Amino acid sequence: MQKEETSFSKGLEGVVAAQTFLSHVAGQEGRLFYRGLEIYDLAKYSAFPETCYLLLYGNLATKPELDRFTQEMTRARALPEGFLGLLKTLPKNLHPMAMLRTAVSLLASFDPDADNLSREALLAKGIRLTSQMPTLIAAFERLRRGKEPVAPDASLDHAANFLYMLSGNRPSPAHAKALDAYLILLADHGLNASTFSARVTVATLSDYYSGITSAIGTLKGDLHGSANQRAMEMFLEIGEIGKVEAYVQGLLANHKKVMGFGHRIYKTEDPRATVFRQIAKDLCTGPAEKWYQISEKIAEIVQREKKIYCNVDFYSASVLYTIGIPVDLFTTVFAMSRVIGWSAHIIEQLADNRLIRPQAEYVGPVNQSYVPLERR
Ligand code: COA
User: Fold this and answer.
1) Catalytic residue among 313, 328, 345, 352
2) Considering only the top CATH level, what class is 21-223+327-351?
3) Which position among 158, 175, 189, 263 bears the catalytic label?
4) Mean pLDDT of the chain
């Protein structure tokens, strides 16, 4: 058998598998841009719906456009009639990411236009699902604790409304702002693993919901979205600043990964981590201050010992914890943000589609003879 000319890259490192207008991850410089705009400015000056508009339509909205778009998002928050009844049938001990994967797949059956791949239909689905996802996550959280879901409050913005539906109380402006910044900063990130999944799925001309369901399943992994949950679990397990050094040295000695560190693309600090370090410092006060202090100590040791930097999931973990998000819900909050990026990528993929089908290099045995069953 003749060997074919192939070049193999484990984990597709260095392979360019798509062209995109959506976001640019400048790994050497540690900068991130959405549609050419630096994320720092978006996090400082705008709110999440503005980033959604930017990613979907390609430009910053004018005031009337943004007002209309924000109203459209606010109106789309409610879950379809009858959906809560189905949500109640899911096991209460289901991991929230498994719930989300199932629930989004189920939402397709409430959309009579589920298979429509036109740009118009995809825009409508992207806006609707981005608006509904917080309602879905908050309802599941309350149901599993034996509480009734709280209906969305149209007078609250996207981030504040989620915190309100979760606890039943209006959040402080500082908590709502921190969550809003989180949603902005995680909305898109080049061809990350879950976005790649979404693009691969829809490139076969499957449907929008299948694309998002694939993406959620991919985000669920510890090396991707669940790193925020794992980082917080590590802080809780360490518990106090005096135990950090021994804990981290133990991980490194056993060749274990420290969650919230390392990145395939960034060769310097993840710019989102830079923003979250400051937010964590400002927000983690009083009894919560120790989470910030533990993070700082871990970062110092990992940088000294392994020369690797923390990523977005590291400092954002203590921020999500301090604003009252249950730890096993962290990755669903990541999905609440990234769903807009996935939606924009699905639209971009289908605007100029080609099946995504890489090759595998066969490295197994060759020229084997078939041995009849009775002689094996
Ligand atoms: N803790 C300790 N060592 C780490 C590390 C971490 N979090 N991340 C990478 N490394 C080390 C690896 O052990 C490896 O060292 P070696 O060459 O001596 O074996 C080297 O850095 C390269 O790591 P590798 O896993 O091959 O890099 P990758 O590009 O394939 O993976 C990540 C990138 C993000 C998956 C990886 O850094 C990781 O597992 N991080 C922890 C999970 C996480 O935070 N994910 C969220 C990403 S936003």
Assistant:
1) 313
2) mainly alpha
3) 263
4) 96
Hunting for tokens 């778009």 — which residue is that?
Answer: 69
Average pLDDT over residues 268-283: 94
Rounded CA separation 71/52 (Å): 13
The three-point CA angle 54-69-219 to 5° equals 55
Q: Whose structure tokens read 């954002």? A: 316
Q: Is the pLDDT of residue 210 over 90?
A: yes
The structure tokens 């999944």 sit at: 197
pTM of the model: 0.96
The closest residue, in CA terms, to atom 21 on ligand 1 is 262
In this structure, the dihedral spanned by the alpha carbons of residues 208, 213, 218 and 219, taken in order and rounded to 10 degrees, is 90
Centroid of ligand 1 to alpha carbon of 119 (angstroms): 37
CATH architecture for segment(s) 227-322: Orthogonal Bundle (1.10)
Dist. CA 261 → ligand 1 center (Å): 7
Closest-CA residue, ligand 1 atom 3, reads 257
Active site residue 67: no
Taking residues 55-70, what's their average pLDDT?
98
**Is 157 a catalytic site residue?**
no
Centre of ligand 1 to C-alpha 256, Å, is 10
Give the residue extent of every domain in the chain: 21-223+327-351, 227-322
Read off the tokens for 57.
């339509």
Q: Which two tokens stand for residue 58?
A: 């390609």
pLDDT, mean of residues 335-355: 98
